[in-house]
Amino acid sequence: MNVAVAKTGNGRAVSDLFVSARGRLPGSPSVIAARREAFETYERLGLPHRRIEEWKYTDLRALVGEVLPLAAAPDAAALKRAADAVKAHAIAGARKLVLVDGVFAADLSDVKALSAEAGFKTLREVLEQDAGLLKTAATDAMIALNAAMATDGVVLSIADGAQLSAPIQILHIATAASATAFTRSQVAIGKGARATIVESFVAAGSKAYQVNDAVIVTVGDDSNVAHIRLMDDAPDAMNVSSHFVTIGANVKFNFFNMTTGAAVSRLQGFITLAGENSELSANGVNLLQKTEHGDTTLVVDHAVPNCVSREVFRAVIDDRAHSVFQGRIIVRPDAQKTDGKMMTRALLLSDEAEADNKPELEIFADDVSCGHGATAGALDDSLLFYLKARGLPEKQAQALLIQAFVGEAIEQIAADDLREHVIGIAERWLERRS
User: Fold this and answer.
1) What is the DSSP letter of 70?
2) What confidence tens digit (pLDDT) does each residue in 24-61 have?
3) Which of 75, 213, 82, 100 has its CA nearest to residue 146?
4) Sheet hosting strand 154-158, strand order edge to edge
5) Where are the beta strands (DSSP E) in 16-122?
6) CA-to-CA distance for 43 and 45, rounded, in angstroms?
7) What is the DSSP-derived secondary structure letter of residue 23?
8) What is the pLDDT of residue 214?
């Protein structure tokens, strides 16, 4: 039986957006064909809604008021605003790669300094010869839409044995109001390499904008990699980011995500442990207030034996905000001796705050050690009383307890300077709340 997807007004708006943007999208004839195929997948699926299990708590048909037009290439004024944002959000000593409204900005980036340690191209350059970066096996509508509409991104290759002297920071700067940026990046890390990748999403004066980003990471054997994502978008923004990671053997991979902005945000991560004796540490923090909606959806796939995964996620929810955590650990039939643990905790600061926590295990092997847990609750009144009795104002007492609550996830960031940078973002969120 053929089932036709009924399009909402938003669905039709996206269709019109693709038709109007085709002439501005880069790529060879094979790329154009791949884009058309991806968009046909999106049209068949439509915008995600609550009847799709993976999107049950993040109904984009209800949450997204309209689909915004594709952002124009940044002009001189936009680049000036972006330069100010880079100064405010750049990590000291990091090699910067800057995307402004979805387009790579060479003048704001450290391409020359980076070239001595890593290979670099823009997505636009790669798409002139090859459509491979747009092809995914995913049947998710937003991933398909990203493949159809991706305008630019960074393509990094880190050589075997490379020991990067500084983090690489990919900065996504939004300057255009009422516009959409579609970006897709790839990071290929060679065997025995050591690298830190940081992605930052920030606004430069813009309020209502939309982001659809995808990043594909492959990690070679015997590597040590940290990947940190900081989603600090404008209050009226929407950000849907998809993260694909394939990990080789004997790898230590540390992933961290923090969400502190956007009216609607979703990070969906798909991490595959494809080589034996690897260790994954995946951690995250959602700091939400007002009516913000923050969704973290993580799938960890143990495809081979003898791997360890640890996931620790925290959410602090104030006012009428809504936090979602969906975590799944999959253990394949051959993945004996798997050790996987997942824990999520939500701290509700308001009677109207909402948390949906959904950890899951899918185990198809018998010699494993796996577990998960989820909790939600308010601040401990006895601890608040203890701090206030020693002279602290209530807001300051709450801030100390909140910092302690999220600290377990943030402490997993090994580098001192990066950990302090993330703590600073959390402290600024607490100041805004006060």
Assistant:
1) B
2) 899 888 898 899 899 889 888 888 999 999 999 999 99
3) 213
4) 119-122, 154-158, 180-189, 210-219, 238-247, 264-273, 293-302, 322-331, 354-363
5) 95-100, 103-104, 119-122
6) 5
7) G
8) 97
